[in-house]
Amino acid sequence: MAQKNYTQYALLGLLTTGYHTGYSMKQMIDGSLNHFWKISYGQIYPALKMLVDKGYAEVKYTSQQGRPDKKEYYITSSGKEALKQWLKQPVQELPIEKNELLLKLFFSRQQDKPTTIKQIEIYHEKLLERYNTYEGIKKMILLESSEHKDAPFWIITLDYGLSTTHAAIDWCIKTKDTLLNLKEEE
Amino acid sequence: MAQKNYTQYALLGLLTTGYHTGYSMKQMIDGSLNHFWKISYGQIYPALKMLVDKGYAEVKYTSQQGRPDKKEYYITSSGKEALKQWLKQPVQELPIEKNELLLKLFFSRQQDKPTTIKQIEIYHEKLLERYNTYEGIKKMILLESSEHKDAPFWIITLDYGLSTTHAAIDWCIKTKDTLLNLKEEE
DNA sequence: TAAAGCATGTAACCGGTTACATGATTAA
DNA sequence: TTAATCATGTAACCGGTTACATGCTTTA
């Protein structure tokens, strides 16, 4: 499997952490990986099919009383091998996050100062919300899943989100100040 | 124009900062916006055409001696209005940067510790490189373009990159330490 | 003489989102 | 009775990348 099928590797990885249905994998990603990964059902179900085609996963059909039928996927040994191969490949390039606020800011000379400051304040609020969400997830993991073998790695990724979000929050405060001291022109 | 045509707004914005050809806009983006925006010619030329169709830009053909012909685009007053309307729309949601390293880290229990640490070291190096690049661009703007009316806004966006990259670098150092103190299991 | 820079463009492809479709159970 | 949760899937669409095509000039 080529290096670029991130979606397939993400699902392959989730199979090793105890998530076995497309539905539960989506939930896991939305809940605990959402600071650095997201995914839609439109990707998940075709991707799972491809994993089976490649022999990296196997399906077990389970019919439940009063619930829709389940397709439970399990990683095969060749799937595990493929995952390990991918894990050790060094990351080739840093992500470039497209940032709408920064794009707007870049052209904000075209706009009056109060409107620009308002923009930053709204962004600031959203960052605080995000920070609290991450903290909440971290506390929950420490309380409820600290015994889970993957937990230390989950915490590490959350700390990345907490650190960079914190830095962004500080930047908001500093930037508001900079803008206030910037003389406007017509 | 809908809120989502970021590419078109980015180009519209660049028209106000003194970049008028597809080629020079691409250069500007690669050189000074690349920490939060990137673009390919495959997007630029069709998008410029659309801006003209909408009446937001006008073309002036210039033939040069010994160089290919140029198409110079200029923003119209209705284009300026559309840009302003977009600038003041608050950012609806924070960007989720898909991060390959974090994805790998999330599943790194499947891998031995030294390999994981190596991954972080490589990422660390790339972050330092990026940090230095941003610092270089900032210094260059302060030295050579400090008179440019947009310069204060360029600096602000660079500071965002510097702050968050710095935070990521600190996280690398801390995480390496955490991993070293983490007892491995088989 | 080869590579890099200037300059514009298109077609094929690909990853991902959104909307749609289905259908049962349980909690408010 | 309505909404939410569980559960799986497809088709249309869209934004963006890559590869390809052209061609002249300047620098190494």
From TrEMBL, chains A, B:
It comes from Halobacillus locisalis. InterPro entries: Tscrpt_reg_PadR_C, Tscrpt_reg_PadR_N, WH-like_DNA-bd_sf, WH_DNA-bd_sf. Transmembrane segments: none annotated. Residues 11-84 form the Transcription regulator PadR N-terminal domain. It holds the Pfam family Vir_act_alpha_C. This is PadR family transcriptional regulator. SUPFAM superfamilies: Winged helix' DNA-binding domain. Residues 98-179 form the Transcription regulator PadR C-terminal domain.
